């Protein structure tokens, strides 16, 4: 107990007891519904116990009911701040099982979409860390530019947030001219905005005092707890799925992976910030590569797999094979090989894995999502033991806990 | 020198002999199984061995095969060697009437909640787990929902008619 | 392949010093130094233009709410500038996102902590009817536990749709009779949910 104040108090007095605080499921500072019961001595936290499951939607059981292309909308709702990454990760898993190889242009288009999603998620996380330390301006300023990203998604797939983007084998249509114009506008205007956001936070005395030393974790403990993604990289371990097992032609791009040292909140903020710059550079490289493609290659937006990719409607009305493929795909009676595959992509929070067992039927026999948030939230108790309540709030928001991914 | 699937397989059979079996490599990932009493020994060996060094537990979950009598529940571990960039998959099977498996929380702290989730969905009892209670479902639930015999929908709902979804049965 | 399309071709200049919209006075009889109108109209006018919402954001619709509250689709211009994060001080609870069976009692407790007059808006398909999650763990619509005034469909609804829902709540608030909360009809409604 805090010795200085309590030294003269009689035994058993109320000031010497610890209080239980319920940082409950509905709380303005928790970003999503999870509960923490904190045992506190004054302002210091002695221990905490987390309860999750307040938004359990049974994704895994739901996936056993749906054919492959119908599983995409439920993968959207995992990490809903960056839903294209979840969708494309699922399509990559299906392509691995079915043995489909996508052309380069499709890969580059996917890279653009995934990096936009990563920027969008890191923007929310960093600005919410700012809001939790009291700086509301960054959040409101940056949300305007997230609207630009939403407009780009809307041009491509029609929806802002839960995108259901792409198909197994590519995209549903080529990117329109308006989408390219909006992307160019984003690439032109966004660096200035990110620079201004950095200026507000990175060397801000108050922000540094609030976040430095807050919830540190060492590299070995982080690995033991199963951390991945920016939280692990802030602790000093450079594990990035895009570099370790490149998917969707990531090996063609030139980018660095930022790594922190102490694993505290300030390092996590800096790692995410630097990752946004790197994502911006990857998008510019991919955009350049796509502009350099000429001729027939520049019109490709899906792999040539008529068994799994819906044929064009005009072909369905005129050609017999297209009609048969259309029917089989919609009814879900396609050729599914038996087997099990584990595929992972670098989500905004870390390694998002899909373990897919197929028994040859129209729906997956078992689909399991390896959700990074769920795995690293276990370490929360260790991160906040001994720190103040306000530090616990800042640690919670810097871990970027998304409730949909926590519970699935 | 990078670690290949054959090298891992030879090391495992050297140490455990006939007990590790069913080696296969679907889509490039070495998969093998062992009896459930040995799961901790195998995990510890994979962790400590200097050439194998599988020190990252990527994923832990279960699969229900109602047709394999005597081996209905499979607990699957995905391990990752970050230094040599190799992944393997390790399965243990157990009977559905006595689904007791030793817990891996001593070795990997990330197994804590993953085992709770497996218990919540399939009923696998992990021996030695510090806090084996339901994590994602409501605490009062008395069945294990991911097993194949249970339906997806809540049978007590009155506003949706199963017959409209082609699933027979109707609400009057 | 596609015709050249342009957007934002004729941008309108921003109206900085212009028209601040002011609420019209209700109908009534004006005289020298007095104005006579119905009490319910004045009270309704005051309430509907200063609704303090409680954002009960659980999942994806919560992110669309954040976008609605941000500068682009401003929620503050409807009078909802202060997001009262405590149920004791709010008028409208906006339930955004899927409510699971584990969360149902929590939602009911938050609703009970609200003071009359209170309104409920169910934002999104999951809050209205369970949405795409017809599963064992999801409550099929929050009207299983609390009475709802406005439903906003969508998955997630666009910010414009959420604003439209707020405007419908404003209509309800503006036209509500002052005796409604004490009437038998309302008591029967609450009893059907088991709320005293």
Report on this structure.
- The complex is a heterotrimer of chains A (about 400), B (about 170) and C (about 200).
- Chain A is built from 18 helices and six strands.
- With about 400 residues, chain A is mainly alpha-helical.
- Chain A has a single domain (about 60-405), classed as Cytochrome-c3 Hydrogenase, chain B, CATH 1.10.645.10.
- Chain A is globular.
- The mean pLDDT of chain A is about 90.
- Chain B has helices at about 5-15, 40-50, 110-120, and strands at about 20-25, 30-35, 55-65, 75-80, 85-95, 100, 125.
- Chain B has one domain: Beta Polymerase, domain 2 (2-Layer Sandwich).
- The N and C termini of chain B lie far apart (about 70 Å).
- Chain B is about 20% helix and about 25% strand.
- The model of chain B has no long low-confidence stretch (mean pLDDT about 85).
- In chain B, the strands form two sheets. In chain B, strands 1-2-5-4-3 form a five-stranded mixed sheet. Chain B has a two-stranded parallel sheet with strand order 6-7.
- Chain B is an alpha/beta fold.
- Chain C has helices at about 40-50, 60-70, 105-110, 125-130, 160-175, 185-190; strands at about 30, 35, 55, 90-95, 120-125, 150.
- In chain C, helix 1 runs antiparallel to helix 5 (about 160-175) and helix 2 crosses helix 5.
- Chain C is built from six helices and six strands; from the N terminus they run ββαβαβαβαβαα.
- In chain C, strand 4 (about 90-95), helix 3 and strand 5 form a beta-alpha-beta unit.
- Chain C has a domain at about 50-175 and about 180-190: Rossmann fold.
- Helices cover about 30% and strands about 10% of the residues of chain C.
- The longest helix of chain C is centred in the C-terminal third of the chain and has 16 residues, at about 160-175.
- Chain C has about 200 residues and is α/β, with parallel strands linked by helices.
- Classes of the chains: A mainly alpha (about 400), B alpha/beta (about 170), C alpha/beta (about 200).
